[in-house]
Amino acid sequence: KAEEYWTLDGALQTSEGREFLARVWRKEGNKFEPVTAEEAYAAQALLEKAVFRVGAVVRKERKRRALAPLITSKLQQEGANRLHFTAKRTMMVAQQLYEGVELGDEGSVALITYMRTDSTRISDDALKAVRTYISEQYGKEYLPDESNVYRTKKTAQDAHEAIRPTSMEYPPERVKSYLSEEQYKLYRLIWQNFVACQMVPAIYDQTSVDIDAGIFQLRTSGSILKFAGFLAAHGAESIVENDDEAGEGGSRDLPVLHEGETLQCLRLLAEQHF
Q1: Catalytically annotated residues
Q2: I want to staple 66 with a disulfide (CB 3.0 to 4.6 A). Which of 108, 207, 223, 230 is the partner?
């Protein structure tokens, strides 16, 4: 059964002209949860006359860890999310990479380990090879003191390792000319995941800001990447991440805000949801 609810966002601007979004989340100290258009527009009318002033500004450091090594179900999920492949297509291309690809004078080379597995286990030799690669390619600050260990489900067979490249001697760019577009995309995904899973976490500066406006309070949040960590394996050197976990109107590029600062409200947006 669909239930109607409304959100009310404000497009706000600092004295320096920086614009960002914030969501109305409290009214007279209580959670603001309008369920009809009348409630939302009544609040909007009051806010149009209010003075917007920055209240509490909370900054904290947050770490984000890499995904576990790929198992079959996760490979299919990542293939769908990142490459828009069906599960069948992902497994078909993975089978080709596993069975072997002709690499010129080197002949047929199996580029990945067996793609039907529910274990996150990685062999000691593979761990040594990827740790050496990370140290040489990205620097020692990207390498944890010990190998990252991921728990495998108790029901897992563990007969095969996680899905990973068979050798660090075949980076995706080196073999790209020998692969079809589909093969290259999936191989790069598997390569990036494997390298990333043995790197240190990414570190963000997360800021949460409350804004007072009459009887209402708005909130916004944003995260700025301080240290790429494992994201470097995905080609992420500088990422600004929208952090909207609390249902706040997050801004990807949140300006520096100071307590007591007065803001200009450019517009208010009341939106219906179900």
Answers
A1: 114
A2: 230
Which class for 151: exposed (0-12), middle (13-18), buried (19 or more C-beta within 10 A)?
Answer: exposed
Q: How confident is the model at residue 256 (pLDDT cuts 50, 70, 90)?
A: confident
pLDDT at 242: 40
Question: 3-state secondary structure string, the chain?
Answer: CCCCEEEEEEEEECCCCCEEEEEEEEECCEECCCCCHHHHHHHHHHHCCCCEEEEEEEEEEEEECCCCCECHHHHHHHHHHHHCCCHHHHHHHHHHHHHCEECHHHCEECCECCCCCCCCCCCHHHHHHHHHHHHHHCCHHHCCCCCCCCCCCCCCCCCCCCECECCCCCCHHHHHHHCCHHHHHHHHHHHHHHHHCCCCCEEEEEEEEEEEECCEEEEEEEEEEEECHHHHHHCCCCCEECCCCCCCCCCCCCCCCCCCCEEEEEEEEEEEEC
Q: Are 189 and 78 in contact (CB under 8 A)?
A: yes
CA dihedral angle for residue 70, residue 71, residue 74, residue 80, rounded to 10 degrees: 90
The two structure tokens encoding residue 69: 């090594």
